[in-house]
Design goal:
This protein is α+β, with helices and mostly antiparallel strands. It folds into three domains: 35-135 and 194-276, Aldehyde oxidase/xanthine dehydrogenase, a/b hammerhead (Aldehyde Oxidoreductase, domain 3, Alpha-Beta Complex), CATH 3.90.1170.50; 144-189 and 285-447 and 598-743, Aldehyde Oxidoreductase, domain 4, CATH 3.30.365; 449-591, Aldehyde Oxidoreductase, domain 4 (2-Layer Sandwich). The chain has 19 helices and 31 strands. Helix 6 links the parallel strand 9 and strand 10 (236-239). The longest helix has 25 residues, at 515-539. The protein is globular, with a radius of gyration of 27 Å. The termini are far apart. The relative contact order is 0.13. The structure holds dioxothiomolybdenum(VI) ion. Residues 216, 247-248, 251, 353-355, 357, 511-512 line the site of dioxothiomolybdenum(VI) ion (MOS).
C-alpha cells in the first residue's frame, strides 16, 4: 500500500498567516537589547583611490560610536586570505574596506556605527571623502574587443562552459534553405527583493555569535563568517527562517554581513546593518549580455545549423559565468553547431545569478531566431518546434531522464486556442489595436547536490525534521513538511519542519530550482532511516506483532505501524514509551550518484503561449493572456507550484516590457537605483495568466522525481511575448526590455 496523502495536495503556505500579520521576523527586525546600528557609506566614484577621509563632523554627531574604514579596520586572522562562499565564481573575492582602492561605483568604503539607525545614517552623510579618479569603462560595447574566455572553477562544474563545435556549421548554414541571424541585447537587471539586505549580529561573548542574516544559505553564511573572521564553526550560528524574496541575490553573502560581523566583534556589541534601496543596487546583478545567432533550416523545417555566441559582462576581479549558449542544441537537434561564450571585464561589481540565470537571457535569442525561421519557411511556429523535437539530447549525445515537452506544447496550445491564430503578421486586430499570438519553448537544468537532514519522532507523536535550508518565500517550509508527512503516513500538523538555521544539518544554498529535489530527497532518506529504527525498536517490544515480519510487510500510517497481512498494529508513541520516552532519531545525507546521473540530460521544460495587444499609436503593449505548460516531474504542492510559475510569468512580462537598470557610462554608475525608476509590473500590467502541469514521471533525477519549478516559468515567457509582438506588428524586438517607442508606428 502506498501512502501519498500529502504529496500532490494544495496546502496553503504554513507560514502565510505569520507573514501577513507581521509576526514573521526578518533579519533586520529581531529585537535584541543593547543594539547599535551600522550605516554603510558607498563610493561615489567608479575607479581610483581614496586619498583622505575626514570624519570630524561625523564623529561629532551625538550617538556615533565608531567609524570603520580601510584605515582602521581590524586585521583579522583570515582577512584577505583565500576564502570564498558556495557561489563564488573563479577570481579574487571582493573584500570590503580592504584598502584605498575603488573598483566600482557604490563600493562600500566605510561603516558608521551609532546608537540609532537614523543617527548613523545622518552621521554617514557628513563623511568627507577625497578621491583620486582613474579612468574606467562600464560599456559592454566599447569593450567587446577585450572579450576573453572564462576561467574554469568550481562554479563551472554546475554551470558548464559551451561544448566544442560540431559538424561544419558554415557549410550547413550556407546551404540552408532558410537562414536567420540576429543580435540580441539584454540590459542589466537587479534582483530587488522586497526585503532589504540586513544582518543583526548578536554578540554572545567569547567569540560566539548568533547572526540573523538575509540569505539563501544559512550554512553558506556560517562558512563564510567562520573563514573570514577565523572563528570556529560551532561558534557561529546563522539564522534565517523567513526571507522576503531574493531571486539569487542571497546566493552569496552580501557586504552588510561582513561589515556587521566585523563591527560586532570589534565593538563587542550587538550590531545591525541594513541596506537601503539604493544600496540594493551596489552588488550582484543580471549581467548585460550581447548575443548573436545564426540558425539555418532545410526546406522541410529541420534546423541543421546553430550558431549562438554571447558576450557577457563581468567584473575585473571575478569571472562570473552563466549558461547562455548551450540550450539551443539541447532543445533542437542540429548536427552542425558553433557555440561560444565570452566575458567582457568592466569596472563594475561581479554579476550574480538571477532567476533562470543565462537560460532566460538565452531563450530570447534562441526562440526569436526559431520564430523567424518558422516565419520564413511558412511553417506554424508550434509545428516548427514539433518538427525539431529532440527525443535525445544531441548536444551531448545522451538520453533525457524524462521529457514531456511535447505534452506541454499540445496541452498549452489546446487550452490557449493556438489554432485560431492567423499566421499572417498584422492580420489580427481588436479595435485600433493589433493582436498577436506568440509561443516559446523553455528549458532549465535539474541540478543534483548533496544535502543532509535529521528526522526525530517523540513521545507526543510529533515528527520533527531539521535542515539548515532557507525558504525564500516560495513554499519550501510547506513542501518539506508534506514530503516528511508522507514518509511516515502522518497528517501535516503531526510534522514540524525546523529550518533556516545553520545549527541544523547542512544544506546547500537554496537556488537553481534544485531545493525541493535535493533537500526533499535528504528528508526522504532521513525518514526512511527513522522508520527502520522505529521498526527495529518496535520488534523488540513485548508481544510485538512485528516479530516475524520485515519492514516491507508493514505500513506506517496514522501514527501506527501496521502489518499489511494481519492488520495488527503498534502505536508509534508506544514505541517511544518502550524506548524510555526517549525520542528516536535518524540523520541521513542524500548523496547523488554522479556516474548514474551523468548518463542523462536532466531538464525541466515548458511551453508558453501569449496573446498581446499592441497600440501602435500610443506604443502600449499589453500581455492580455498567457498560458504556460510545465513538465517538471512530480509536483509536490500544486498551489505553491502554480504560484511559482505565475511569479516566473510575471517576471517574464517584466523582463520583456519593464525591468532595466540604466547605466550612465560617463559617470560609470547606475542611475535609476530606486523602485520609482526601476520599473516593475504593477497589477494593471498583469491580466489573465494560467498554468498547466503536465504529467511527467522521472525515476532518475532524485528520490522524489521532482525537477523544481523556480525558474522554468520565466524562461519561456519573455520570448513568447517577443514572438507575439512580431506576430502583431511584424517587428522583431531584439533589445530587452522593449520600450514603447520600439513599437510606435511613426508613419
Ligand atoms: Mo537562484 S538565481 O539559483 O536563487
Amino acid at each position: 500500500m502506498k501512502n501519498n496523502a500529502q504529496i500532490g495536495r494544495s496546502h496553503n503556505r504554513l507560514e502565510g498567516q505569520l507573514k501577513v500579520t507581521g509576526q514573521a521576523k526578518y533579519a533586520g527586525e529581531y529585537q535584541v537589547d543593547d543594539l547599535w546600528y551600522g550605516y554603510v557609506v558607498n563610493s561615489t566614484i567608479t575607479k581610483g583611490k581614496i586619498v583622505s577621509i575626514d570624519a570630524s563632523k561625523t564623529r561629532s554627531v551625538h550617538g556615533v560610536v565608531e567609524i570603520f574604514t580601510h584605515n582602521n579596520r581590524p586585521s583579522l586572522p583570515w582577512f584577505g586570505m583565500m576564502y570564498s562562499d558556495m557561489d563564488a565564481p573563479p577570481g579574487t573575492p571582493f573584500v570590503p574596506l580592504w584598502d584605498d582602492e575603488i573598483k566600482y561605483n557604490g563600493q562600500p568604503i566605510a561603516l558608521v556605527v551609532a546608537d540609532t539607525f537614523e543617527g548613523a545614517r545622518y552621521a554617514a552623510s557628513l563623511l568627507k571623502i577625497k578621491y583620486e579618479i582613474e579612468e574606467y569603462s562600464t560599456n559592454l560595447f566599447d569593450n567587446i574587443d577585450n572579450a576573453k574566455k572564462p576561467s574554469k572553477g568550481l562554479a563551472t562544474l554546475i554551470k558548464p562552459l559551451p561544448p566544442s563545435p560540431k559538424g561544419d556549421f558554415e557549410q550547413a548554414y550556407k546551404s540552408a534553405a532558410a537562414q536567420s541571424s540576429g543580435e540580441f541585447l539584454h540590459g542589466t537587471e537587479h534582483h530587488n527583493p522586497l526585503e532589504l539586505f540586513a544582518t543583526t549580529t548578536v554578540y554572545e561573548g567569547k567569540g560566539k555569535l548568533t547572526i540573523y542574516d538575509k540569505t539563501q544559505g544559512t550554512s553558506n553564511s556560517q562558512i563564510y563568517v567562520s573563514n573570514v573572521f577565523g572563528l570556529s564553526f560551532k561558534n557561529v550560528r546563522v539564522i534565517s527562517p523567513y526571507v522576503g524574496g531574493s531571486f539569487g541575490s542571497g546566493l552569496r553573502p552580501q557586504y552588510q554581513l561582513f561589515l556587521c560581523v566585523m563591527a560586532a566583534l570589534e565593538l563587542k556589541r550587538n550590531v545591525r546593518v541594513t541596506m537601503d534601496r539604493t544600496q540594493m543596487f551596489t552588488f550582484g546583478h543580471r549581467p548585460q549580455t550581447l548575443q548573436k545567432t545564426r540558425f539555418g533550416a532545410v526546406e522541410d523545417g529541420q534546423v541543421t545549423a546553430i550558431h549562438h555566441s554571447a558576450f557577457a559582462e563581468t567584473s575585473r576581479f571575478e569571472d562570473y559565468t552563466e549558461v547562455v549558449v548551450n540550450w539551443a542544441n539541447i532543445l533542437y537537434p542540429a548536427s552542425n553547431t558553433l557555440l561560444d561564450y565570452q566575458l567582457v571585464p568592466l569596472d563594475m561589481f561581479t554579476p550574480m545569478d538571477m532567476r533562470a540565470p543565462g537560460g532566460s537571457t538565452a531563450m530570447h535569442a534562441v526562440e526569436s531566431t526559431m520564430d523567424d525561421l518558422a516565419f520564413q519557411l511558412g511553417i506554424d511556429p508550434l509545428e516548427f518546434r514539433l518538427i525539431n523535437y529532440s527525443e535525445r539530447d544531441v548536444s551531448e549525445d545522451k538520453p533525457f531522464s524524462s521529457k514531456e515537452l511535447r505534452a506541454c506544447y499540445h496541452q498549452g496550445a489546446e487550452k490557449f486556442g493556438w489554432k485560431n491564430r492567423n499566421p499572417e503578421p498584422r492580420s489580427m486586430k481588436r479595435g485600433n489595436r493589433l493582436v498577436g499570438y506568440g509561443m516559446s519553448s523553455g528549458i532549465w537544468d535539474v541540478i543534483a547536490l548533496p544535502a543532509k537532514a535529521q528526522a526525530i519522532y517523540d513521545k507526543n507523536g510529533q515528527l520533527t525534521i531539521k535542515s539548515a535550508v532557507t525558504d525564500n518565500g516560495q513554499g519550501t517550509y510547506t513542501v518539506m513538511t508534506q514530503i516528511a508527512a508522507d514518509q511516515l503516513g502522518l497528517e501535516m500538523d503531526q510534522v514540524t519542519f525546523k529550518y533556516g538555521d545553520s545549527d541544523m544539518p547542512l544544506s546547500p544554498i537554496q537556488g537553481g530550482s534544485y531545493t525541493t529535489g535535493v533537500v526533499g530527497s535528504a528528508i526522504k532518506a532521513a525518514c526512511k532511516a527513522l522508520k527502520e529504527t522505529l521498526f527495529s525498536v518496535a520488534k523488540k517490544m513485548e508481544n510485538s506483532p512485528l516479530k516475524n515480519v520485515d519492514l516491507s510487510d508493514v505500513t506506517f500510517k496514522n501514527g501506527q505501524i501496521t502489518v499489511n497481512k494481519t492488520h495488527q498494529s503498534i502505536q508509534l508513541t508506544d514505541v517511544i514509551v518502550f524506548n524510555n520516552n526517549e525520542p528516536i532519531e535518524a540523520t541521513k545525507s542524500n548523496i547523488p550518484n554522479p556516474i548514474k546521473l551523468k548518463q542523462y540530460t536532466r531538464a525541466a521544460h515548458s511551453a508558453a503561449f501569449v496573446e498581446v495587444e499592441v497600440d501602435e499609436q500610443l506604443g502600449v503593449i499589453n500581455v492580455i493572456r498567457a498560458i504556460t505548460a510545465v513538465a517538471a516531474g512530480k509536483i509536490i504542492n500544486p498551489k505553491t507550484a502554480r504560484s511559482q510559475i505565475l511569479g516566473g510569468m510575471v517576471w517574464g512580462i517584466s523582463k520583456a516590457l519593464r525591468e532595466e537598470t540604466l547605466t550612465d557610462h560617463n559617470l560609470g554608475k547606475y542611475i535609476n537605483t530606486n523602485l520609482g525608476e526601476y520599473h516593475l509590473p504593477v497589477h494593471a500590467d498583469i491580466h489573465e495568466l494560467d498554468v498547466i502541469f503536465v504529467d511527467e514521471k522521472d525515476d532518475i533525477i532524485n528520490e522524489l522525481g521532482s525537477k523544481g519549478i523556480g525558474e522554468i516559468g520565466l524562461s519561456s515567457m519573455t520570448p513568447a511575448i517577443v514572438n507575439a509582438i512580431f506576430h502583431a506588428t511584424g517587428k522583431r524586438m531584439t533589445k530587452l526590455p522593449i520600450h514603447f517607442n520600439d513599437v510606435v508606428n511613426h508613419e
